[in-house]
Amino acid sequence: MSAPAPTPQPGTEPGRSLPVTFRPTRTRIVLLAVGAAILVTLTAIAILLEGLGAGERASFVVTGLLFLGVLALLARPKVVADTDGVTVVNLTTTRRLEWAEVIKVNLRTGDPWVILDLSDGTNLPAMGIQPGIARRQAIRDAKELRALVERYGTGPRDG
Length: 159
Prior knowledge:
By secondary structure, this protein is α+β, with helices and mostly antiparallel strands. The chain is 40% helix and 20% strand. The protein contains 3 helices and 7 strands; from the N terminus they run E-H-H-E-E-E-E-E-E-H. The two termini are 32 Å apart.
């Protein structure tokens, strides 16, 4: 058996192969299920209540759609790692980073999500990895992203 190459090729690391998507799956399921339940409930109320005009019925349905839209927006965050870098999708923004731009992946006790330390001295929240209701999964995902940064990044390293 031959010795492993000193620098692994993209997609050959142990575990999942690239690209890999990190997202708070349980949180996403809960948010979307609650949004759908609210929409169904308000639509049923609009249909079942007697004496409502068309505008009032429509307002119930529109309110349900607004709730679903807000909860779908909250379910949007993800982090996608591929051979060229990382794409961080937060609530309303998407940012593409090269591996060399990510210096460190932080998930400290009490943090609501992963924070990426960047080579320009700034930090970027990566809401796609959040310990909320799936702490162990978030810790595994943060460790995996940290290993990918260490493997593919060329920035300075902490000890």
